[in-house]
Structure formats: C-alpha cells, structure tokens
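Lesson 9: reading folded outputs for more than one chain in a single document. The general rule is that every protein is listed as its sequence immediately followed by its structure tokens, and records are never interleaved. Here is the first one.
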Amino acid sequence: MKNYIGLDVSQTSCAICILREDGSRVFEGECSTDPDEIIETISLHAKCVERIVHESGPLSIWLSRELKSREAPVVCIDARAAHKALSARMNKSDRSDAEALAQLARTGWYREVHIKSENSDRLRLLLSARERLVRIRMDIEGQARGILKTFGIRLGTVRKGRSRRDFRDQLGEIVSGDPILEVVFASLIKVHETVCHKTTDLDAEIQRYAKHSALARRLTSVPGVGPIVALSFIATIDDATRFRRAVDVGAYLGLTPRRYQSGETDWSGRISKRGDRSMRKLLYEAANILIQRVAKFSPLKGWAMRLVQRKGLKKATVATARKMAVILTRLWRDGTVFAWTKEALPV
C-alpha cells in the first residue's frame, strides 16, 4: 500500500507523520533536521513511499535538494496555501501540522513550489549582496546629510565617479577643525570608502557575468533593461519553460490586478504585489526608463506612451513593467532578441 509523508521542519527537529493510502496512521514522531536521519526514519516505517510533503521556509530549498539527491519523492508546497488547511485544526502543534501535511500529500490538495537551481541562487546572492552594499552606502550618506543639517551645513551634489570620492572629500573638508565632528565622521568616511570600493568590485563581477552569458546579452537588447535587471530576471525565473504561457509571469511577479468575484460582486483592484519584490521594483524602474529616457522609437515605446496618455504615468509604468516581463520571457524561450521595428518581428 502506498504511503504519504508530511514533514513539519524546524531549525533543529523535524516532525514526521506517515499515512497509508486509506488515511490510517502508520507512524508519528520526530527526528533531527538532517536528511540522512529523515530518510532513515522513513525507511524504518514505510517501504512504498509515494510522496513526501513539506512547507516552503528557510530550510526548504536545502532540504528539498538533499532529499532529491537521495532519490526521495519530495514536494515543497506553498506555505500560504498550506496555512489554510493547517489553521482549520483546533489545536496547533508540530505533530498535528505534520499530519495535516501528510493528508495534503494523500489528497493532492496543494500547490507545488518551484525549487530553483543552485546556479540561480548563487547569482541571486551576488545581486543581493550588491543591493545591500548600495543600501548601506545610501544610509551613510543620508545620515551624514541629516546630521550636518542640524549645524546648518548642506552638502553639495556628489559626482558618481571614483567610487563617490567627492562625497568623502566634501565631508572631510567640512568637518575639519571640529574635534567632535571629526571623530564621528572619520569612522563613517572609512566605512563609506570600503563599501563603495566593494560595490565597485561587485559591479565589475556582475558586468563580467552578464558579458559571458548569451541569455543575459539577449535580454539586455530590450530598451531599459541593463545587466542587473537581466541577471535578476534570470535568477528569479530560473526556468522559463515552467510557465505554461509567457503572460503567466506577470502574475508570478505580482504585477497583475487582484480580483474578487462572488455572486453579483466582481471587482479588480490594485496589483497583487506577490512574488519577488526586488524584481518587481527593477522592472518598474526599467519601464520608467523606457517611457521617460529612451529616445529611440519602438513598438513597445509607442504602446507605453499611448497608455500614458489614457491611464497616467504610474499605471502605464506598471503595465509596461508587466509587458516587459512577458517580452523577456518570450525572448528567453524563443532564443531571439528584441525587435525594434514591426518588420523585424518573428513571423
């Protein structure tokens, strides 16, 4: 008889529940959150394992990869969807959650989460580290400007060249002569310099990665899309073929309107904002660049400008970001580049 297993995973321990095909319980217990021990515990109590289900969480990617490498039929399901079933129980515990997950595995009432490749996670790590350093740099500059305004000092415009050295030169010149300000800003200047140099190093690595990636070069053919947007899209989507239709990527990135329909009530609201927030922000910025900065005409540019006239800049930018995500997915699938004219569109 087939067996279905639910795993409720925490940092140190893992609750396990094994159910037969008819819903009867075979085993209920705990083990440490170690793939080998999980497999050993399951093999002691179940021979014919049809499906192993666990929720998405901090350890879900690692655990899914490790269990799959041991040829276990593991499925990671959406925690938000699973919460609806788990919250229906009167009492909550790790064991009851594991039993509920085993019931979901038995009935098939779940939505599977795509586990991204290790290469995508490494690329995402590179991009997120660069984003974090940029945020630290901006926080330091904002804090320095805010503190100096208390003393009536306003810093001028900072040029981007030489790792924003102009900011540090202005700051050092302004605070010189004041012992307290010199002590406070000496550490900020040092940290700012280190962060800027490390950000420059990561920018160079990202440029190198994009240059050697044929897919990234094709995606950057879209106006408004640079190396960071292209690589972030690759890391976020991971596999474009997992979408049945290219337009489905808009909903995956939270760029489609919410809808509520019940009886005579039917309305559409703002975009869902589900999925990767950073990717959604990058696509919005790329769409804004296309609308306001790209001078060269294209069918995409014309479509966006007509939408600006009808709906306004903000709504048009969101719609253009969604359309750009669809175009990037199609370029990925078809192995083509962006068509700047209608005549260049593939037949």
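And here is the second record, again sequence then tokens.
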Amino acid sequence: MKALRHDATALYDIPGPKTERRHKMYGAVSTLIVLALVGWILYLLFDTDQFTYTKWMPFEYTGIQELLLRGLGNTLKAFAMAAVLSLVLGTLLAVGRLSDHKPVRWIATLFVEFFRAMPVLVMIFFIYVALKMEPLAALVAGLTLYNGSVLAEVFRSGINAVERGQREAAYALGMRKTQVMTHVLVPQAVRAMLPAIISQLVVALKDTSLGYLITYEEFLHAGKLIASNLDYDLPFIPVVMVISPIYIGMCMVLSWFAQWVAERQRRNPKTEAADVAPAEPGTLLPGTQ
C-alpha cells in the first residue's frame, strides 16, 4: 500500500507490524551497543584513575587556564581568517571554472584539482619551510588553498544543479550572464550548498590543530605543553578530555549556525512562493462565448 506524507513529496511504503518490530529491535540493539561502548570507556578511565583530584588539580591554576584560553583564541583567529579567505578563493575559482573563456576555465580547473589533491599538512609544511612564512600565515595559507579548492567544486556543483530552465528563461528575458548568476542561479543554489559549505568549514576548524606541528600556539599546542609538564602517568588523557568537548562544541555551533541561516532563508519573502488566488469567473475575452 502506498501513502503520501503531508510534509514530503515522495511516496513510501507504510511499514507493517513485523517491520516496525524489526526497526525497534535494531534501535534497541544499537542503543545497547553504544551504552556498552561508553561503559567500557568509563571503566578504563576509572580503572586508570583518570578522575582523581590529583590529575585535575593543575587545571585550577591561572597560568594553565590562561594558556588554554590563549590557544583557543589563536585557533579561532586562524579559523576565521582561513574561513573567510577560503570562501573568497572558492568563489573566484568557481567563477573561473564556469567561465566561457577556455584559458580561464583550464587554469581554474588545474588550480582546483592540484590543491584539492595535495595533503593539507604537506602544503602547510612547504609554505612554512620553503617560503619561510610565519606559523600563522603558513597555517592559514595551507588551509585556504585546500578548503578554497574544495569549496570551488561545491559552488560549481550547486550552481549547475539548478534546473536548466531557470537559466534559459533568464537569458530569454535579456539578462546578462552576471545577472543570471547573481539574481537567479546563486540564490537558488545557496540553500542546497549550505550543508556542504558548513561541513567544509568544520573540516577547516579541525585542521587548525595541524598548526602545532609548525609551532603555532593554537589550542592543541597549548594542551601538548600542559601534558608534557605534568608529572603523573598518562597525562594526555585529562588534557584530551578538556580539549575535545570544546572542539566538539565549536563544530556544533557551526552546525547550529547553518540551520539558523537555512531557517532565515525559508522565511525570506524573496524565496517564498507567492500565494495565488483561486480561479473565479471573470469577463470573457473578446470573441469567446
């Protein structure tokens, strides 16, 4: 039997009693597995005395707190610079790949394919060692080249995914290519591109941790300094337990921001469908009965 959901446009099969029981069983088994894994991790942490006061006391010191805050600030600084520059570079490369001029399109394609295939760490090390740039500049440059190249493909794919008839109708109205891109294609493509854009920015945020390899004093580098100066066994575990939730929280904030932007777009009058009045009897055209 087929049914149509009110909030969707696709048909689906209504699950029967056996299917519902099977899905509930899958959910229960998955929950038990997750709980068992969490319990096993907690057991290992308690078994190795990771929650004793001695191992958490150093985080009460003002110097350690300031070191962590300074590292977090440097991480956010590098991420903000890399995110803005990646979006700009991605836009320019996407425009180049969509250009009608073959030389421009070829150059943009070569740039994108090269830096998208190059490992981020290799680029950061090359810029830092060969070009002798400062750690912050090397980190931001490496992140920008990689993430900008990936975002260029996201932008290009999103624009090409817009229905072809939209483009043809705009050209039929006499609009230039720039007008078609800015007023027709891009506004419709942004909603589809937004999840991929935010996902790539989350990758850029996590990749800022590579800065500690070139002595940039970011969040992970601060944690490494703290752990290396603690005089008990397994000092990295408490540090990781402090740093990891903050990284996860920052990524969740980015995801929340993406959802907020998407909701605002849906409520934007320019993107909402106009209400059409129901058809009513009217005056007949001349020559009709």
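What the second record shows: The chain is about 70% helix and 0% strand.
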